[in-house]
Amino acid sequence: MSLIDLAAVSFAYGRSRKVLHDIDLRIEAGRNLGIVGESGSGKTTILRLLLGLARPTSGRIAFRGEPLDPRDRLFMRGFRRSVQAVFQDPYSSLDPRQKVADIIAEPLRSLNVDTDIDAAVAEALASVDLPSGAAGRYPHEFSGGQRQRIAIARAIVSQPELVLADEVVSALDLTTRIRIVDLLKSLSERTTLVLVSHDIGFVALLCQDLVILEKGRIVEQGSARNILSAPKHPYTQRLLESTPRLPDFT
Question: What is the CATH number of the domain that holds 122?
Fold first, then answer.
């Protein structure tokens, strides 16, 4: 079942700076997708389009077959409940003035979700292996890895169908990265993930499908197993050569 489809999507900043070119992409429910490319490849722009934070210059984006139109408030309310995001920097993505409980509960309140908010926050904290006492503390009291767990808890508290994660481990040390990967593996049993990253090794641990971006164009896409075991495009081959350790897909 398709969640989001991009058909011939292009995007330009102004009249001359085109950053995406004719992107065709499908996100299937239950199949994690990794979008991989170096800085400037267009990854962040695709993420913004998938979140409805920007509109394509040309082409079509659909959520469950319906046009994704940020101007349609009623449609976007349902979309926001179904699609949530986790951003790169756990130090800047959390409001330092709010307690953790309020940070995690924000999607429930903004979307007017009819639920027991305290119970939902407690469940979200437990899902990311943080104690219930964390709810009454502030972000600065936690490590970087713990802050990223809080950000993930905020993303899953509304029980979305899809979570979009932008470079979620790049600001973390190696040990913490491993813990976040294990957490995301667990979460992917109940929600679909889209991981945007420059690190093909990281997304290969979690994603069934890969899209490789170079200079705003998809140069290769398909199953992670096929791409990692037999990459066809020279750019993909260079990315793999620069990655020290990869899962064994042979």
Answer: 3.40.50.300
| Residue among 44, 42, 51, 52 nearest 10 (CA) | 42
Count CB neighbours of 134 within 10 A: 21
Model pLDDT for residues 97-123, shown as the tens digit of each residue: 999 999 999 999 998 888 999 999 999
Stretch 33-38: mean pLDDT, rounded?
95
CA distance 214 to 235: 7
pLDDT digits (tens, 9 = 90+) for 153-174: 999 999 999 999 998 888 788 8
Three-state secondary structure call for residue 241: helix
pLDDT 10s digits, 197-243: 998 988 988 999 999 999 999 999 999 999 999 999 999 999 888 87
Q: How many domains does the chain have?
A: 1
In a domain, 246, yes or no: no
> Which domain covers residue 78, as residue numbers?
2-241
Q: Where are the beta strands (DSSP E) in the chain?
A: 2-13, 17-28, 33-36, 58-63, 66-67, 83-86, 162-166, 192-197, 209-214, 217-223
Are the C-beta atoms of 212 and 189 separated by less than 8 Å? no
Parallel, antiparallel, or unpaired for β 58-63 and 2-13?
antiparallel
How does residue 133 score in pLDDT terms, banded at 50, 70 and 90?
very high
Give the C-alpha separation, 250 to 248, whole Å: 6
Q: Give the CA angle between residues 70, 75, 81 to the nearest 5°.
A: 95
Q: Which residues share a beta bridge with 176?
A: none
